[in-house]
């Protein structure tokens, strides 16, 4: 049954036929999402992925995750792991793979590999982590439990502390997050 909430999304049957490594229940993925290497992508339950999102490489997405329009995840071989109750706002980007722009190499996918230095490090969002609109997360970034990156911010491979809100370029901690309220709500949800 189509409604304003799921119109334009793949059906469960269509999702199964896309060839994901695994796919949960209650998953809504826009038909306008670009998916490269679905066999390397695992998706949990109750996940929504909006229009014009790009998914590429090794990616694990937990349950109760939202990925907003125009976001992108480039997992490469190192991979991106997004835990339960995490989110990416519109236009946010995660890269587990990137060219070395500093140490005198050529950059870009059109350049032969012997002239490039490609950096590949896993990116991990543990649980209750969020990335604000227009923010950028680079290889090696780790978001500990409840860590959030505000809008228009940059994490250049740092470990963000538990239950902390960061903002800026480069991102700096500006607030503590109320973990008790969030964990109490999670318990009430009984997922």
Automatic annotation (TrEMBL):
Catalytic class of the enzyme: transferase
A biological process term (GO) from this entry: response to antibiotic
Any GO molecular function: chloramphenicol O-acetyltransferase activity
EC number: 2.3.1.28
Keywords assigned: Acyltransferase, Antibiotic resistance, Transferase
InterPro entries linked: Hexapep (IPR001451), Trans_hexapeptide_repeat (IPR050179), Trimer_LpxA-like_sf (IPR011004)
Reactions performed catalytically: chloramphenicol + acetyl-CoA = chloramphenicol 3-acetate + CoA
Family: Belongs to the transferase hexapeptide repeat family.
Record's protein name: Chloramphenicol acetyltransferase
Native source organism of the sequence: Helicobacter anseris
């Amino acid at each position: 049954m189509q409604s304003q909430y799921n119109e334009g999304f793949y059906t469960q049957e269509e999702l199964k036929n896309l060839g994901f490594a695994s796919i949960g229940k209650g998953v809504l993925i826009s038909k306008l999402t670009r998916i490269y290497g679905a066999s390397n992508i695992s998706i949990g339950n109750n996940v929504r992925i909006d229009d014009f999102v790009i998914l590429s490489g090794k990616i694990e997405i937990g349950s109760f995750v939202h990925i907003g329009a125009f976001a992108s995840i480039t997992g490469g071989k190192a991979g991106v792991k997004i835990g339960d109750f995490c989110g990416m706002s519109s236009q946010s980007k995660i890269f587990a793979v990137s060219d070395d722009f500093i140490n005198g190499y050529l950059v870009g996918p059109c350049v032969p590999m012997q002239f490039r230095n490609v950096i590949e490090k896993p990116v991990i969002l543990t649980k209750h982590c969020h990335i604000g609109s227009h923010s950028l997360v680079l290889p090696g970034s780790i978001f500990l439990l409840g860590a959030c990156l505000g809008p228009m911010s940059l994490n250049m491979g740092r470990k963000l502390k538990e239950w902390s809100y960061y903002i800026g370029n480069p991102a700096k901690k500006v607030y503590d997050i109320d973990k008790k309220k969030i964990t109490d709500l999670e318990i009430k949800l009984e997922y």
